[in-house]
Design goal:
With 225 residues, this protein is α/β, with parallel strands linked by helices. It is built from eight helices and seven strands; from the N terminus they run αβαβαββαβαβααβα.
Length: 225
């Protein structure tokens, strides 16, 4: 059965808009070095302990030579970008056009705004050598479990996934353990997650893939024998 012309035009518009979002955001958000993508709540402000933890994380990553990329929003995303800028690191954001107003962080070197969530996820994941997950809600969980699924199905190579804030993530880890016992989740998939309260532990876990990126870059730049 032939589709109505109007429906085909809507599909074509979706394809064209998403392609433009990909091209523009990938051009704007080149990390220029090892990049860590951070997810976390947009709702937790400066009065929350998690904000300071996120800001310290951004500072530590910036000082260690990592670029940071967040979803470009307020709350813990802002805190990470803010900390990275304060430390002289490269601070990137990929924000969304929402139907409701959401204030954007101002602590960026560069930020791209996209229309579609699937575009945002690809852009935020493609150059990341690791992921830090701060306390967050449904959006943060969506991003976390999509990354886990991509690694489980080998659509993404294995990269460090670090949950920061042990007390916050403990109920989720208990649920995952129950799912392992029920046979619905493989223990090896849960083992992809690391949980800590110590930012220095996270930096240590990110260091190995960062060295691999540097070595790969050196190999590409070496003249042919």
């Amino acid at each position: 059965m032939t589709q109505p012309v109007g429906l085909r035009m809507l599909e074509l518009r979706l394809l064209c808009r998403s392609l433009w979002d990909f091209v523009r955001s990938m051009h704007l958000l080149r990390a220029g070095g090892p990049c860590i993508t951070i997810f976390g709540s947009a709702r937790l402000g400066e009065h929350e302990p998690a904000y300071e933890m996120a800001r310290d994380l951004g500072k530590s990553l910036g000082r260690a030579g990592f670029a940071v990329m967040t979803g470009g929003g307020p709350g813990l995303m802002e805190a990470v970008n803010r900390g990275a800028q304060e430390a002289g690191g490269r601070s990137l954001g990929c924000s969304m056009s929402f139907a409701f107003d959401q204030p954007m962080s101002r602590y960026f070197d560069r930020c791209a705004t996209v229309r579609y969530l699937f575009v945002r996820k690809v852009v935020m994941c493609r150059q990341a050598i690791g992921f830090a997950v701060l306390p967050g809600g449904l959006g943060t969980l969506d991003e976390l479990f999509e990354i886990l699924t991509l690694m489980q199905t080998k659509r993404m190579r294995r990269k460090p996934i670090i949950l920061l804030g042990r007390a916050y993530w403990e109920p989720l880890l208990l649920l995952l353990e129950q799912m392992v016992l029920a046979g619905t989740v493989a223990r090896g998939d849960v083992a992809l997650l690391e949980v800590t309260d110590d930012i220095s532990d996270a930096l240590d876990l990110f260091a190995q893939p960062a060295r691999a990126v540097v070595l790969e870059s050196c190999e590409h730049q070496s003249p042919a024998a």
